Request: fold
Amino acid sequence: MLQVTDLRCARGGVPVLERVSFALNPGEALILRGPNGVGKTTLLRTMAGLQPPLSGSVDYPEGSGAYASHADGIKSALTVTENLTFWAQIHDRSVPETAYAAFDLHDLRDRLAGTLSAGQKRRLGLARLAVIGRSVLFLDEPTVSLDNFSVRMFADWMRDAHLGQGGCAVIATHIDLGLDVPALDLTPYIAAADADGGADAAFL
Amino acid sequence: MIALLLRDLRLSVRAGGGFGLGLAFFLIVVVLVPFGVGPDRVILTPIAPGILWVAALLAALLSLDRIFALDFEDGSLPLLATAPIPLEGVALSKAVSHWITTGLPLTCVAPLLGFFLNMAPGAYVWLLASLALGAPALSMIGTFGAALTVGLRRGGLLLSLLVLPLYIPTLMFGAEAVRRGADGSGVTAPLMLVGVITLGCFALLPFATAAALRINLR
Reply:
C-alpha cells in the first residue's frame, strides 16, 4: 500500500536522509525513531508530498495520504464540532459519531477550540484523522501533550479503527505507544556530509 | 471549496476575525480628506473619484496579510495542501472570501461616501460600477501577494510593497471611469479595461498563487 524506494530527502537545501526504503501492507504501521534533527519530520513531509524528494520514490494510492504535524490546524474561533465538520466537508465526508467517542470529545462538542487545553486540542487534532477517511497516515509526534490515558485512547483507535480497517501509518514518536508494530531507527540513514545535490554546492 | 469559503466567512465574523476593519478604515480615511484639504467644493468635487479609489485600495490592502498567515500559523495550510481540494481552488476561495468581507462592503458604502466629498451627481453609478468590477481584482492580486509572503516575519510590509504597484492599472482605469462619468463623457473604455484586468487576474493568478504556496510550504 505504501512503498518507499531509495528515498533521499533534504531540509533547507541540506540532504538529511538517504537510502530510505520500506514497504507497508494494509493494516501495517511503522514507528520512526531517531534523535532530534535526524530527519523524521523531513521524511514524513516528503512522503506526504509537501516537499519533493531529491531522488527515489514514494508510492501510495492517489488521494489516500494524510499528514498531521505538531500544529493541529484548529481554528480557535470555531467550536469542536465546527472544526471537525469543516475537515470532513473538505474531504467530502460527514463526521461519524465514533470520532467523538474515540477521542473522548463528547462533552466538548460545543466548546470553542480556543478554550480547550493543550491536550484537548491535540485530541481534536487527532480526531481530524478519524473524520477525513484517509488510509495512509503520516503522523509527526501525535502524542505530544497527551496524558497516558489519551495516549492509550489514541493507540486503541489506531489499532482498531485504522489499522484494523486496512489503513496504514508511519508515526514519528519518542514514546512507547503500546502498539505492536515494528520500529525503524533512522540513524543509519543519515546522509553523508559531502552528499551533493542539495545545497548550492557550486557557490560554496 | 464551498466549505472552505463558508469557514473563512464564519471566522471573519467571529471574535478577532477582522470583518469590517477595512470598511471602518475606508470610512475614516475618506472622512479625513475634507478636514485635510478643506470643505471647498471646488477642490473636493474633482478629486473625489481619485480619493475614493485610493482609499478603497488601501482598505483592501489592510487585511491582505491575514489571508494565508492565520492558516499558516495554526498548521491548516499543509493540511489543506494534502486535502482533495486543489491549491488553485484554495487560492480562488481565499480571494472570494476576501472580496466578500472587504471589497463588497467597500463597494456598497462608496457612493454614500461620495456624498461626503461632494462628488458630481453623474458619477455615483459609475463609482459603484467601477468598484464592483475592479474590487475583485484587488482581492485576487492581494491573495497572490499574500501567498508569496506567507511564512515571512513582517511579511505584511513586504506584501504592501509587492502588491501596490500591481494595483496601479485597476486604480488608473477605475478612477478614470468615475471621472469620465462625472464629466458625462464615455465611460465604456475604462470600465471595460477594469473588467478585463479582473477577468485576467482570476484566470491566471490562482495558478500563480498555488505555485507560490507550494514553494513556501516546502
About this structure: Chain A is about 25% helix and 25% strand. The longest strand of chain A covers residues 14-24. Strands of chain A lie at 2-11, 14-24, 29-33, 55-59, 65-68, 136-140, 168-172, 183-185.
